[in-house]
Amino acid sequence: MQKRIWILAMVATVLLSGGAAWAEDGFYVVAVGGGGVGTKITSLPYTITTPGFYYLGRNLSYSGNSHAITIEADNVTLDLMGCTLSHTGPAPGVNPYGIHLYGRKNVEIRNGEISGFYTGISETHLLDGANHRVINIRAVNNKVEDLGSIFGSGIDLAGKNHLVRDCTAANNGSAGIALRSGTISGCVARDNKVGIALNGPGSLIGNAATNTSATDTIGFTIGFWDPVLVSGNSANGNGVNYDG
Q1: Alpha-carbon distance 235 to 211, whole Å?
Q2: CA atoms of 43 and 56, how far apart (whole Å)
Q3: What is the Cα–Cα distance from 66 to 44, expressed in whole angstroms?
Q4: Does residue 130 sit in helix, strand or coil?
Q5: Please, what is the Cα angle at 141 between 109 and 65, to 5 degrees?
């Protein structure tokens, strides 16, 4: 009862102020006639250089060969607000990511779809990237063909201690979801070459990995030498369901 009263009070405050605010984790309040909190991204490519909150106000498409959104700051939250970030036009080369990070820390990306890029979301620094959260993202059809082979991933985070939760990765070129270390939970991977890969220490909890083709496909790839908690996952229709 107290939480309900608190949330209603928060909504009333937002409506009166014409702004927006967080009532609780995962619940976003937008005032009538108002926008989102923070900085609205309206065109691509876009580079984030300062910490803070950023959001999409509509679907955005991009046809260039650089990254659509580059995050060059720590402590950033990027909310797609249910919108789609997509690559359109000519097939992408081997460089464009939907959202690219390099050696960043404490970045959260959530609530929307990323499609048509070489890789949807990527942290590419092997050591320094840390503590990212990717929540409620659909990463679909991110791939590129080069010399007869298909590459690209939905969500691919190097570094350490990441969380990927409640995401869907489908029809990506290589991995649906790949982490160097951290936790992947409540995610669904479908029709990727590798569904879900955890290549270092961490947890795989309550995920599903399926393929309609059993030729050269893997449901889960699990690091061999590092401690990994595996609980409540399911895999079917893959050439190999579990590898590691």
Answers
A1: 9
A2: 9
A3: 10
A4: strand
A5: 75
> Looking at residue 18, what is its pLDDT?
40
DSSP 160: B
CA 112/CA 114 separation, integer angstroms: 7
Structure tokens at 98: 């939907």
**For residue range 186-230, what is the model confidence (pLDDT) as tens digits?**
999 999 999 999 999 999 999 999 997 777 899 999 987 789 999
Backbone angles phi, psi at 2, to 5 degrees: -65, -40
Q: If pLDDT is split at 50, 70 and 90, which confidence band does 148 have? A: low
Tell me whether strands 27-30 and 20-24 are parallel, antiparallel or unpaired. antiparallel
- Residues 23-77 have pLDDT tens digits of 344 544 453 345 567 999 999 999 999 999 999 999 999 998 889 999 999 999 9
AA letter at 150:
I
**DSSP string for residues in 27-84:** EEEE-TT---SSEEE-SSSEEE-SSEEEEESS-EEE-SSS-SEEE-SSSEEEEEEEEE
The whole-angstrom separation of Cα 33 and Cα 18 is 7
Which pLDDT value is given to residue 154?
Answer: 97
DSSP code string of 80-129: EEEEEEEE-SSPP-SS-EEEEESS-BSEEEEEEEEESSSEEEEE--TTT-
Query: Six-digit token pair at 191?
Result: 């029709």
Q: What is the pTM of this model?
A: 0.85
